[in-house]
Design a protein that fits this description.
The structure holds 2 protein chains of 2 kinds. In chain A, strands 6-7-8-3-9-10 form a 6-stranded mixed β-sheet, with helices on both faces. A 6-stranded mixed β-sheet of chain A has the order 16-17-18-13-19-20, sandwiched between helices. A 4-stranded antiparallel β-sheet of chain A has the order 2-1-4-5, with helices on one face. Chain A has 19 helices and 20 strands. By secondary structure, chain A is an alpha/beta fold. The longest helix of chain A has 18 residues. In chain B, α6 crosses α8 and α9 packs across α10. Classes of the chains: A alpha/beta, B mainly alpha. The interface between A and B is medium-sized, with 35 and 20 residues.
Chain lengths: 568, 309
């Protein structure tokens, strides 16, 4: 056995309390095996990796248990010895390839230095070894690339270099902490293949720490599921994902959006936040919220976008010919029917968020026309009808932490549009309706008196939704509303959005990079690449019979979930 | 989530990281105590000072130039001695400190108000507005602050009719120091505003269609005030020094109602005739006051900076 962790406890002793980040954790890793460590944020999975490496940040400390590495307890070894083990016997791959390489040194310098230190080779030999390593991780023309700096590599290539660095000391165990989270799907697949291949050819033990069950399904041999600092289930991947024993594992797997067919709602996802209390939901039809006037021009679509383009200036210059522009949106047109959910999907930088921001009037497109409810949003922006159409259009943002003003109470955040536009009769009614809205989104009216920092990411996203509802919108733009959330919370939020759409007949523009989520949410989908739309189709048609080659490529790259088909 | 009751204002005030950092930093406590003592005794001067140095009836030229009690020739009623006109030094320092602190506070408030408004506007609108405001600030920053204050002070005095100069000298000094101070605030606030403007809560407010001025006041302003607080504390110390410098140069508060700076200047004339106490004690008072306020500002900067915690 390569690594054997016995009853590990990790504590963070803080001013007010001691947080037990890991409790009684036991794990085993064999040579030539990939162990997946999966769990949601705060489950303690990264803590385990750091505890093995003795890299816990203060005030964290290993409070109990043993870490046997090659039958030797490495817990509490002196720092110099630990440093040697870290370089030569255990390698580490971090999440963000942007920050784990030194931007001031060439790839060669970083690799050669590491190799010389840990293997004691001469410079020439070390250089040969570096070339060998780079070739081993799939970098072509390796000898020439030694002279290159990290910024000359793409994100995926950089992560390959990081892997080469981790292998430099010829380690027996690799700990990869979310190695593909910062990468696009197309690159994720390549990196996972590379790690798995290295594990087999070099007979390495690998621990992959991730929140993504799709990654586990693709790469791991065995998986350990963590929940609140404890390992709740360990076993072969096929068994754990196919026939989970523990309730938490079951609800975690149920919460993963399926790519193969559309479900009405996600099932049983209430395990995480202590079982959602049944809050009073309001009868929307007879409520203030449902009383939004319909001022749609006859026969108009909810949203029409005609040939909009927008370029950003990358480099300023006085002369027009010297300016460098980035065409973020290029001649895009689409329309959304009332009550429909329209998806925009694409990789990062494809311009999907820019389109959403154009429709929400946060950016002004260089050319083209945008109509909401039949009203032209760009021509005479100050006319009362345009403003009304604009206010009927609200947005839910991606980052639950920066999308709420931390200095204001939830009441004031949600009540802001009602107060400013006098949507209610008086302050008493405002307070009552804010309470009801918070109830309706599943937070409870008592949340109104608190501040945003007292809430978790998912709860904050519910506040964001309540704030959007307070303008009585007819159209909701959701810009990656769940990509910063854990899967189980994501499932809850997506269910909530579906409920709201059913009750209020909202029109939704749903933006995501995540194809399975799009499949679960959307009626029609547009696939974007480099600022232009490649394909627009009904969501079922698109997923079953994609016509555009780029769509096909994207669908092929989705993490395969066939192991989980039998689950639930 | 636990159903915690909303706590009272004071328990929340005491039970946060800033308060914790305060009570575990001895320097901060000491500085706060000294600053509170200095400011408190200055503000309460009419109640605790043995004499009123601004009241000619209480001044007797016969008692002029007396040394402190512990020096030979000192009198018990004048603890720190008297100045050339027979004013009790202790009382004069208390009253003078009061003047210095009031001028400092008012000047910082003026500079802060100007700087914060211009900074937020500059960061929020960007473009030409930003360029104009920040270029003016840049130009002003190239001129040494004290020179600029002397300039503004001089112009202000020249504009006033002769008989009003003494009476309004204090306001002129406040305006001069305040106008010198604003670029610091404007720069910091503009930087913070640029960060906040791009956050999604500001975008959400725009999508709600709130007007720009309301977004600035309700959303951006409360979120950029932290660094301003630090700057204002350190700025207070600097403003007190600026006032003392102006007064020392004879450009500030007139000797009839002396501030600390004026006292030091007056005493300076007698330094070489052996009357060291007239300049020494006001100088010590000034140093202690500025030092304590500065330490407090330093601590606040560290406590509010998440990177250093």
């Amino acid at each position: 056995m390569l690594l054997d962790i016995k009853n590990l406890d990790v504590e963070f002793r803080m001013r007010r309390e001691t947080v037990k980040a890991a409790r009684n954790v036991s794990l085993q890793v064999n040579a030539g095996e990939v162990l997946g460590l999966v769990g949601e944020s705060g489950a303690g999975k990264s803590t385990i990796g750091n505890a093995i490496m003795d890299l816990l940040e203060k005030p964290g400390l290993v409070a109990g248990g043993e870490i046997l590495f090659k039958d030797r307890n490495i817990r509490g070894l002196p720092p110099e010895e630990m440093r040697r083990i870290r370089g030569d016997e255990i390698g580490m791959i971090f999440q963000d390839p942007q920050t784990s390489l030194n931007p001031l040194l060439t790839i060669g310098e970083q690799l050669v230095e590491t190799i010389q230190k840990s293997l004691g080779l001469r410079e020439k030999a070390a250089e040969d070894r570096a070339v060998e390593l780079l070739e081993g991780v799939g970098i072509t023309e390796a000898r020439a690339r030694l002279q290159a700096y990290p910024h000359q590599f793409s994100g995926g290539m950089r992560q390959r270099v990081v892997i080469a660095l981790a292998l430099a000391g010829d380690p027996d165990l690799i700990i990869a902490d979310e190695p593909t989270t910062a990468l696009d799907v197309s690159i994720q697949a390549q990196i996972l293949d590379l790690i798995k291949g290295l594990c087999r050819t070099r007979n390495l033990g690998v621990i992959i720490v991730t929140h993504d069950i799709g990654v586990i399904a693709n790469i791991a041999d065995r998986v350990a599921v963590m929940y609140r600092g404890e390992v709740v289930e360990t076993g072969a991947v096929a068994q754990v994902l196919g026939a989970p024993n523990h309730e938490y594992t079951k609800s975690l797997i149920a919460a993963v959006p399926r790519a193969d067919r559309r479900l009405e709602r996600f099932e049983s996802v209430d395990y995480i936040e202590g079982g959602a209390k049944p809050f009073n939901r309001i009868d929307v039809q007879n409520h203030w919220l449902g009383a939004a006037q319909d001022f749609r021009a006859p026969n108009a679509k909810a949203i029409e976008v005609n040939d909009i383009s927008l370029s950003f200036v990358l480099q300023k210059a006085v002369l027009k010919s010297n300016r460098r522009m980035l065409k973020a949106v290029d001649q895009v047109s689409f329309s959304i029917q009332e009550g429909e959910t329209f998806g925009l999907v694409g990789e990062s930088g494809s311009g999907k968020s820019t389109i959403a921001r154009c429709i929400a009037r946060l950016y002004k497109p260089d050319e083209g026309e945008i109509r909401a409810m039949g009203r032209d949003l760009l021509a005479n922006p100050r006319s009362p009808e345009t403003r009304r159409a604009r206010r009927a259009l609200q947005m839910v943002f991606q980052d639950p932490y920066s999308s709420l003003n931390g200095r204001k109470r939830v009441l004031d955040i949600v009540a802001e549009p009602m107060r400013f536009f006098k949507l209610t009769a008086d302050e008493a009614e405002t307070r009552k309706i804010v309470g009801e809205l918070l109830d309706h989104v599943g937070l409870g009216a008592a949340a109104a008196t608190r501040y945003p920092h007292e809430f978790s990411g998912g709860q904050r996203q519910r506040i964001s939704i309540a704030r959007a509802l307070a303008s009585r919108p007819r159209i909701l733009i959701c810009d990656e509303p769940t990509s910063a959330l854990d899967v189980s919370i994501q499932a809850q939020i997506l269910n909530l959005l579906k409920d709201l759409q059913d009750e209020l007949g909202l029109t939704m523009l749903f933006i995501s990079h995540d194809l399975p989520v799009i499949r679960q949410m959307c009626d029609r989908v547009a696939v974007m690449k480099d600022g232009a739309i490649c394909e627009i189709a009904e969501s079922e048609t698109l997923f079953n019979n994609p016509t555009h080659p780029y769509t096909r490529r994207l669908l092929d790259l989705m993490p395969r979930m066939d192991l989980m088909k039998s689950a639930v | 989530m636990a159903e915690a009751k909303p706590r009272g204002f004071f328990s929340r005030l005491l039970d946060n990281d800033i308060a914790y950092s305060f009570f575990t930093t001895p320097t901060a406590i000491a500085a706060a105590v000294i600053a509170a003592l200095a400011i408190g005794s200055a503000l309460l001067a009419p109640l605790i000072a043995p004499f009123n140095p601004f009241d000619p009836a209480q001044i007797s030229l016969w008692d002029g130039k007396l040394p402190p009690v512990w020096v030979e020739g000192g009198q018990a009623q004048y603890l720190l001695g008297t100045d050339n006109q027979g004013r009790d030094m202790l009382s004069t320092i208390l009253y003078g400190g009061r003047l210095s602190i009031v001028v400092g506070l008012a000047a910082v408030c003026l500079g802060m108000a100007l700087g914060v408004v211009l900074g937020v506007v500059s960061g929020f609108f960007g473009g030409a507005v930003d360029s104009v405001i920040m270029r003016i600030a840049d130009v002003q920053l190239t001129i040494p602050g004290i020179l600029l204050a002397i300039l503004i002070n001089g112009i202000g005095r020249a504009l006033l009719p002769l008989e009003m100069r003494e009476e309004f000298a204090i306001y002129v000094v406040i305006v001069a120091i305040g106008l010198t101070d604003w670029p610091q605030f404007a720069r910091v606030v503009r930087g913070a505003t640029l960060v906040e403007v791009n956050k999604e809560y500001v975008q959400a407010a725009r999508v709600i269609d709130l007007p720009g001025w309301l977004i600035m006041i309700r959303h951006i302003l409360p979120n950029v005030m932290r660094p301003v607080l630090v700057l204002a504390t350190i700025g207070l110390a600097l403003a007190v020094i600026s006032e003392a410098t102006l007064s020392f140069l004879g450009q500030g508060i007139p000797p009839t109602t002396p501030s600390l700076g004026t006292l030091i200047r007056v005493g300076n004339e007698f330094l070489f005739s052996g009357l060291w106490w007239i300049t020494f004690f006001p100088a010590i008072a000034l140093v202690v006051l500025v030092f304590a306020v500065n330490l407090l500002g330093d601590w606040m900067r560290d406590a509010l900076n998440p990177k250093l915690r």
